[in-house]
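FW: tagging you since you asked about this chain on Friday. Here's the raw sequence from the shared folder, copied in full. Didn't touch anything.
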Amino acid sequence: MATSSSAIRTLDKSGNEITTVGFTRFGFDSEVPIDVLRSLYLRAHYVTTASSGDAKEEHLEEQALHAQFSKGHVAYQSKSIYHPETQSISYTTLSRFPPVKLLAPSQRKRVLVTGGAGFVGSHLVDRLMVLGHEVTVLDNFFTGSKTTVSHWVGHPNFELVRHDVVEPFMIECDRESISSFSCIINLSVA
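HL: got it, structure written out here
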């Protein structure tokens, strides 16, 4: 498989290159570089088999092709390696988080997303995190999954809480932020 080293470009209907998605509306800046979103959503979801020779060369070609989409953000992605001789799998965790905007505390919002580990919620969480906001995800994982937001676990702006919304939710906050959350987005089923 032959690959070129040039990055994949996205063009609008006028032929201009699209480099960001989102906009500023109602004082909320949601503009994000498109290559950062690609690195989150177009990351390789395949399992690499540990072997040598031609398989490694083929794997390098796959990585080169994937690099066209991720534009150098491959370091922010986790990988799985299957060892056929022992029928085991090893996971590498993220050594770094995807890049997020650096916002002043006055611009940073603290957002609670209930149902944030579901399909819609996890995409919203990704967007809010990339925009630089502090996000708390509240989910009971009945229909959602930890894997949808696992790439943010450990980030200083992210908190994941296993909790059912039918029960009261108590959270610690400092005296200055007595109205703790700037925004509460309810995507839970209950």
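FW: The chain has three helices and eleven strands.
HL: agreed, and Residues 20-92 form one domain.
FW: great, closing this out.
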